[in-house]
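Let us work through a complete example step by step.
Step 1: write down the sequence.
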Amino acid sequence: MKFLLFLILIFFGCSPKAPEVSKVCLEGHVYFKLANQLAIKLTDDGKPINCDKNESSKGTTIDQNLVRLALDWIQLLDEKKFDQSWELAAPFFKNALTKAEWSKAASLVDKRFGKIIKRGPIETLVSGDRAEVRFKSDYSNLSATTETVSLINANGKWSVIGYTLK
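Step 2: predict the structure and record it as tokens.
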């Protein structure tokens, strides 16, 4: 049953509940997020509003450390090292699925979407001890895909609690 639930989570883009973030800084401009939709904030004369210089300290810009951690973890999936990706995940992730269940689910997804062609970070959302790193990715069987790695910071160490591909 856990295996089926996790497959549903992967295929329909559900991940463990991530915090809502209402303000996002992307490519130097302020956006507002509501129900997974981004809207750019404009001045009265229609120009984009730039982010404050201190925005990065609030965790609303692309956090390169989180991107690197998430990318390292996703690359284990690209290399079909599913067991190793499970080992590096947070206890929450491991409690949701056994290593065998995760390996089977990840293998099915790998077969469905094919090989990675390109991947680039599009945003990091951080709120307290939770974060999401989103990538725009193209696979051999699916292009313009969004990959999301959900993370938790426990005792000063970030680790993966969820992954979605849609």
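Step 3: interpret the result. The chain has five helices and seven strands.
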